[in-house]
Amino acid sequence: MKEKFLGVDVSSYTYNQLKKNIISDIEQNKQSFIVAINPEKILQAQKNVILLRLLNQATYQIPDGVGVLLASKIYGGNISERVTGIDMLLTLCEQASTYGKSIFLYGAQPGVAEKAKENLLRKYPNLNIVGVMDGYVDDHEYIKKQINAAKPDILCVGLGSPRQENWIVDNMKNLDVRIFQGVGGSFDVLSGRVKRAPATFQRFGIEWLYRLITEPWRIKRQIKLPMFLYKVWKNKKYNYS
């Protein structure tokens, strides 16, 4: 269940379908890799073949961005629900809490993931967070050793994109983990260090507008959305290759 936009795969699964797939993958001892896809990443992949291959290696490329939904409509596709990176992380926590699965938080500045853990446990008291490590640890063998010792079912990696995706692809075969997700700055939001857009902006898929209002310097990034949609429209005939 994938669609292709300018060469980048995007999964058309809804949250409910992803919930079932994630638990099934864990139960079947299958390694799966989740990456959030937005128009900016797709445009970056046009200039970077390595990034393009990296994104398409993922098991689930979730449609994180209203631009991806609009692109699907232009192509007559089936992506009907935006699946944001942070909400996917919360979905993983919810499923882990419900089905007795464990999770490890790796990344962000010292103390941030620890605070995110505290807030996640307030939201999901039964959640089993078996490990936390910041993204400033330099000993890569130590990192892998600590994760394998904890044996988490799910590993959330917050190192920024595409560094986190590269790290996952380079290390997943040597880790005793089933589900991997690159979560970007989600730990910063969950810790309270960064404020997320109000619920109304989230509901209508216009968190980008809130970020633009609060951080006007983002205009150079936000202007990429119409550029992306124009390229999608222009290349419509190459859809679903």
UniProtKB/TrEMBL annotation:
User: What residue ranges carry the coiled-coil annotation?
Assistant: none
Concerning Pfam families, the annotation shows:
Glyco_tran_WecG
Q: Per the UniProt record, which EC number(s) apply here?
A: 2.4.1.187
Q: Which domain of life is it from?
A: Bacteria
Instruction: Spell out the InterPro entries in the cross-references.
Output: TagA_TarA, WecG_TagA_CpsF
Q: Enzyme group, top EC level? A: transferase
UniProt entry keywords in alphabetical sequence: Cell wall biogenesis/degradation, Glycosyltransferase, Teichoic acid biosynthesis, Transferase
Q: In which pathway does it act?
A: Cell wall biogenesis; teichoic acid biosynthesis
What is this enzyme's catalytic activity, as reactions?
A: UDP-N-acetyl-alpha-D-mannosamine + N-acetyl-alpha-D-glucosaminyl-di-trans,octa-cis-undecaprenyl diphosphate = N-acetyl-beta-D-mannosaminyl-(1->4)-N-acetyl-alpha-D-glucosaminyl di-trans,octa-cis-undecaprenyl diphosphate + UDP + H(+)
**PANTHER family found in the cross-reference section:** PTHR34136, UDP-N-ACETYL-D-MANNOSAMINURONIC ACID TRANSFERASE
Function, as annotated, reads: Catalyzes the conversion of GlcNAc-PP-undecaprenol into ManNAc-GlcNAc-PP-undecaprenol, the first committed lipid intermediate in the de novo synthesis of teichoic acid.
Q: Which family does it belong to?
A: Belongs to the glycosyltransferase 26 family. TagA/TarA subfamily.
Name the NCBIfam families on file: wecG_tagA_cpsF (TIGR00696)
Q: What is this protein called?
A: N-acetylglucosaminyldiphosphoundecaprenol N-acetyl-beta-D-mannosaminyltransferase
